[in-house]
């Protein structure tokens, strides 16, 4: 039962490799104190209950900074907005239903404020409000046996259809106490409340800042102030390379992928590992070597290489967005 509950819950726990991501030092978040307000109450569209944004007393500055670093990974535009069309490749049915709940600004734009509202709703709203919102995301009415089988098939992809059908029958009999042949919101809420409170709290816990990240780490500047001895070229300065190296090291990214995209070979990477003990120094030395030998305009090449190597968030933080 709890496995299914965990599957149905929103996956806010973040991947290990980038759990320490944060905005670049000095980067401002586009939230102003005078624009913040609160709208209470639970309505059909659950995100409306905290849109456009929540009061600053509810979201701390480190939490807003954390949200901003995560929002950057979605590649917003220069105004800090993201088009809903950017998420058009979401193929999961429930992913689409979740997107349908997000309030949109003009021209189908998802604003950073709406993103903060969603994150804060997941983290702050009462437990029952959260799992009722979860049900509303899964369906606009009731969950029948076929829909339940789809959920279970996603949860247990290796099970054969017969086993999935038996599990669906079992869950339906457990939750559908009125024998309606489907599960409505009230039945779902009653079933959820039947679990021990500490189990529910654990499954539905979506902290804005993961517990493994201390407040000190969250407030720590993203790059040191030490300078690097080479001249600026085409808008690229020393601090930007230091930032890239520091962020990739903190987020435990595979810097050799970036090196390969910049044209360096395996023996170059091996030599850097032998010459420099810590990862950040290895990355910085690699970037400096590349820059000295680069015969084209370096900035667009580095930005493209960062994106191709799975470091779009770092590229946006360092080069693209400044608010």
UniProtKB/TrEMBL annotation:
Gene3D superfamilies: Death Domain, Fas, EF-hand. Pfam families: Death. PROSITE patterns: DEATH_DOMAIN. GO terms for biological process: signal transduction. Transmembrane segments: none annotated. Residues 254-322 form the Death domain. This is Death domain-containing protein. It comes from Mauremys mutica (yellowpond turtle). The lineage of its organism: Eukaryota, Metazoa, Chordata, Craniata, Vertebrata.
């Amino acid at each position: 039962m709890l496995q299914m509950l965990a599957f149905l819950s929103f996956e806010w726990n973040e991947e290990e490799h980038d759990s320490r991501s944060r905005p670049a030092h000095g980067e401002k978040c586009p939230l102003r104190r005078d624009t913040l307000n609160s709208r209470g109450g639970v309505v059909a569209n659950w995100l409306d209950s905290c849109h456009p944004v929540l009061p600053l007393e509810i979201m701390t500055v480190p939490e807003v900074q954390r949200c901003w670093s995560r929002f950057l990974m979605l590649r917003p535009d220069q105004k800090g907005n993201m088009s809903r069309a950017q998420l058009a490749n979401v193929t999961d049915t429930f992913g689409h239903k979740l997107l349908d709940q997000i309030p949109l600004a003009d021209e189908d734009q998802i604003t950073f404020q709406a993103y903060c509202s969603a994150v804060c709703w997941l983290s702050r709203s009462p437990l029952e409000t959260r799992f009722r919102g979860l049900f509303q995301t899964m369906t606009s009415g009731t969950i029948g046996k076929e829909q339940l089988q789809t959920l279970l098939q996603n949860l247990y992809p290796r099970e054969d259809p017969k086993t999935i059908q038996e599990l669906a029958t079992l869950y339906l009999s457990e939750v559908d106490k009125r024998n309606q042949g489907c599960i409505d919101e009230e039945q779902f809420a009653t079933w959820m409340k039947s679990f021990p409170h500490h189990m529910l709290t654990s499954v539905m816990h979506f902290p804005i800042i993961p517990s493994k990240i201390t407040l000190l780490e969250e407030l720590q500047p993203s790059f040191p102030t030490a300078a690097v001895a080479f001249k600026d070229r085409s808008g690229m300065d020393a601090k930007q390379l230091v930032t890239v190296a520091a962020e990739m090291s903190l987020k435990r990214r595979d810097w050799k992928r970036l090196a390969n995209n910049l044209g360096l070979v395996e023996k170059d990477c091996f030599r850097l590992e032998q010459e420099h003990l810590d990862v950040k120094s290895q990355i910085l030395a690699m970037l400096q070597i590349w820059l000295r030998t680069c015969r084209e305009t370096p900035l667009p090449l580095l930005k493209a290489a960062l994106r191709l190597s799975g470091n779009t968030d770092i590229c946006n933080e360092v080069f693209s967005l400044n608010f």
